[in-house]
Amino acid sequence: MKFDGMNGPNFRESSAVQNMNSNGGHSRRPWTSGGLILAVALFIAAAANVQFFSAAVAAFGTGSTLWPFYLSLFLNLTAVLVLLLSAVCHRVLVKPVLIVILMLSAVLSYFAHAYGTVFDAQMIANALATDNAEAGDLLTLKMVVWIVLLGLLPAIAVARANLTFPHWKTETVARLKQAGVALAVILVSGAAFSGHYAALMRFHREATSKVIPAYAILSGVRMASRALPSSTPKQHVAVGTDVMRSSTDQHNELIIMVVGETVRADHWGLNGYARDTTPNLRRENVVNFPDFWSCGTSTAISVPCMFSNLGHDTFDKSAAAVTDNALDVLSRAGVNILWRDNNSSSQGVAARVPYEDYRDATHNKVCDDGECRDIGMLDGLQDYIDRQKGDILIVLHQMGNHGPAYYKRYPKEFERFTPVCATSDLGSCTSEQIVNTYDNAILYTDFFLSKVIQLLKSNDQKFETAMFYLSDHGESLGEYGVYLHGAPYALAPEAQRHVPAVMWFGDGIKQDIKVTSLEERRRRKWSQDNVFATLLGFFELNTSAYVGGADILERAHDEVTDLR
Ligand SMILES: [Zn+2]
Fold first, then answer.
1. Is residue 181 pLDDT above 80, yes or no?
2. Which H or E run contains 55?
3. Edge to edge, what strands does the sheet with 336-341 contain?
4. 465, 506 in Cβ contact below 8 A?
């Protein structure tokens, strides 16, 4: 016993010495930085780019003559990754850069796999603007497993690799040789299959946007260069400084604008969807706009765009941030403005007007399980209305149909279409379950909007009242393997761009708009570019910033004219 007891520590000591030896690199395979870069490039090309290769196969086909091209595509992708990594990996940077790239690729490939997400500059901006609650919605067990297998484990292997650095001259020569070989692979395979590559670039850009992580990094660089402070600080641009109230406007307006979230036009009951997802609005005799289009495919673009006078073609988020929007012009004309938000933020739109956050229980009285309901935004609104003197515009920014956790967006009693998809992992649900859940969330918005109308009705004696609802953008529900939204606008499917829009009018305000032409006007093609003029039109404001032709509602009074 005594003998054993004395021997134990000695045994442990010697094994510790052995461990030190192996960590010191005597028994583990030594890696050069070039070798490690190549290994990581091969791993990312093979493991993280399945979506890219399936998009390429979908574009070109599966014929056996195409296999040499697909092989060249794989080699080419690996070579591009080697070149990119070589450019930034030097000495102490090798491991950190490779670890970051592996983790990033794992996350990007998960979203590409689960939601068909393309990480362009806009999607990166959306991701950065995502708050904790939204991020929590996205977190699933599958995502964790995916990122551990494709990101964390290889990253740990890189961190533990026995990296050796020869003399800097030897190292430089070896790395230049590697870059040369990579370049040769790109040139030779590019020349051998030039027709295929040209077709890929020209006709299948969607496929190239799936290259991980190259496309996201390029987009990130592009975005960062745009976000860098320019040499001259941006001056605030005033719009509509000549704004005046119309002399014929004797009444006070009370307009409630509801900025919806992620509702697509073809699931809107009033647009003729096979399911009646808007039974309450149908009863309220609202004016439905069946041909309404979004400015962007994300909240971060559509919301500031619809309030700005820049319009889709010239819209720029950073320019919009320092330019007066519709709320600023209305505010200058003396309209009382209140923005209540149950979404992420006003995206800068309400930066200069009163803003209230309804995403947590401090303001919102209707919250359960961390989910605060849109209906909570109506709480105390009558008191607010009673306290104001003059015109009022209230903007309610909904949580609406925000995905992928559609099942969280409505109380149990709105679960009319079943079975539902009670998870954020849309890939694990059938398309029927996803659509059911999504449609239930629209039912809740329909209910919410009917409550807004009720509030307006009870104020119709005192004010000229109206409600204007429109969704910020639509949503892909798995068509072509694409989920959610945020696709580059030019490539985005109609489902992400075609949105529902409705108006409701109280009795008083009908004298100010040409109700007779409404039936014809509501059928025209409109977009969020028309919101700026329409909001100014509601309050009968005269300003050179008001373009009458862009106003969805024609004014009834002739003296109120376009000053341009
Ligand atoms: Zn949105």
1. yes
2. helix 50-60
3. 355-357, 336-341, 392-397, 253-260, 464-471, 498-505, 287-293, 526-527
4. yes
- What distance in angstroms lies between residue 373's CA and the mean position of ligand 1's atoms? 16
Cα of 32 vs centre of ligand 1, distance in Å, is 47
Rounded Cα distance, 109 and 359, in Å: 30
Query: Which structure tokens are listed for 71?
Result: 């092989």
Length of the chain: 564
Compute the distance from residue 177 Cα to the ligand 1 centre, in Å: 48
User: Residue 264 burial by CB count (10 A; 0-12/13-18/19+): exposed, middle or buried?
Assistant: buried
The maximal CA–CA distance of the chain, rounded, in angstroms, is 110
User: Which residue intervals of 167-308 are DSSP H helices?
Assistant: 168-192, 194-203, 205-208, 214-227, 279-283, 299-307
Mean pLDDT confidence for 527-539: 95
Q: Show the beta-strand stretches assigned E in 437-528.
A: 464-471, 476-477, 483-484, 498-505, 526-527
| Nearest residue to 297 (alpha-carbon basis) of 498, 34, 44, 53 | 498
Residues at Cβ < 5 Å from ligand 1 ion: 261, 299, 472
Q: Cα(135) to centroid of ligand 1, in Å?
A: 14
For position 11, what pLDDT does the model report?
A: 37
Using the mean position of ligand 1's atoms as its centre, give its distance from the Cα of residue 130 in Å: 11
Do 57 and 149 touch, CB atoms closer than 8 A? no
How confident is the model at residue 202, as a pLDDT? 66
The tens digit of pLDDT for each residue in 68-98 reads 999 999 999 999 999 989 888 888 899 999 9
pLDDT digits (tens, 9 = 90+) for 125-161: 777 777 666 777 777 888 899 999 999 999 999 999 9
